[in-house]
Amino acid sequence: MAGIYIHIPFCKQACHYCDFHFSTSLRSKDRMLAAILSEAQLRKTYLENQTVETIYFGGGTPSLLNADEIHRILDWIFRHFTVSPSAEITLEANPDDLTYLKILELKRTPVNRLSIGVQSFRNEDLLWMNRAHNASQADYAIKCSQDRGFENITIDLIYSIPGLAHHTWIQNVQKAVDMEVQHISAYSLTIEAKTAFGHQYARGEIQPVADTASEEQFLSLRHLLQRNGFEQYEVSNFCKPNMHSRHNSSYWTGAHYLGLGPSAHSFNGTGRQWNIANNAQYIKGIEEGFPMFEVEVLDEKTRYNEYLMTRLRTSWGVDVSYLMHTFGVDILSTEKEQLETWQNNGLLLVDNNTIRLTEQGLLHADRIASDLFIVKS
Ligand code: SF4
Fold first, then answer.
1. Distance from C-alpha of 70 to C-alpha of 320, rounded to nearest angstrom
2. Global pTM?
């Protein structure tokens, strides 16, 4: 089983918190799409004939593509790779792009899952984050997509927004529940250095939300969604029964994936590869036959630590037998004291063959994982 990720590196405007790779100039869009198709052809053996079970258009803003462009990319992928007839094909879409006609067009493509970048149902938050859409567009995008037959919709929400009162956050989550989406990804706002918020923070104009308030919002999110039939299968991801993101789950379960487009990452089991995060240089490299990318061969230590870091964040947890078979490490013995400490503090559960985080543990997932790295960096 394998996946393909396609990075569409264009956005209408820069959201103040965003540190993904994108450009607000669409001048090179046609050349970019041609370069992505060429890259797919150049790298058609990367997945070694594994069946592609998921295709994911991410960005940037893939909903800036029209239906013809989406068809062209997918036809090309279907021609060069073995794609399962039941593949999950996700397109990230911003609400302001999801007009009635656009949704009709999208429904005629093989895209069968929409990831709608709602972020908040409140205009104040959307304005503050410099999102291109407003609250009523978010509402319309979800309803119209549902009415036109999209049965697998995920939305993104952001919490820990300065000025977002706790009860208002709850209203945001409740609104998502009421809209009957199948999946919700919720992220705590982080202030990254090279973003507009990062610059405002450096000038002392904004302050991040206190950890306690952030944790309170996370726990309320979890409780409200669980009461409404959602399963938390990863720290930031919640779904109705059997509606997990197959694409993201494959990242966490070690499946191989090919990343196309600038800044896209690939993984083939032994190494990671990432394309240059620069539109002009990406296109030039492909056009001239010298694609620009970096490769990292993953040593055993890195693979072990990555497994712990990703799996501990999921509801599947860390498989003790897998660590023994793959790395020859009996974590229950080598980390006995550390595991007991976290268990006594109510942060971890160890049962038979699996190590999982408790609710409190979810708040400290990354720290616990790094403390459990068997080979310290
Ligand atoms: S639309 Fe998405 S990728 Fe583009 S700037 Fe906003 S958050 Fe970043």
1. 42
2. 0.96
18 CA: nearest ligand 1 atom: 8
Q: Does residue 123 contact residue 135 with C-beta atoms inside 8 Å?
A: yes
Tokens matching residue 31? 């050349």
Residue entry with tokens 């694409």:
247
Q: Is 61 in the pocket of ligand 1 (CB under 6 A)?
A: yes
**Is 144 close to ligand 1, i.e. is its CB under 6 Å away?**
no
158 CA to middle of ligand 1, Å?
13
Dump pLDDT digits (tens) for 1-52: 899 999 999 999 999 999 999 999 999 999 999 999 999 999 999 999 999 9
Three-class secondary structure of residue 182 per DSSP: coil
DSSP symbols for 96-147:
GG--HHHHHHHHTSS--EEEEEEE-S-HHHHHHTT-SS-HHHHHHHHHHHHH
Q: Which of 81, 75, 62 is nearest to 1 (CA)?
A: 81
Asked if residue 109 lies in contact with residue 148, where contact means CB atoms within 8 angstroms, the answer is no
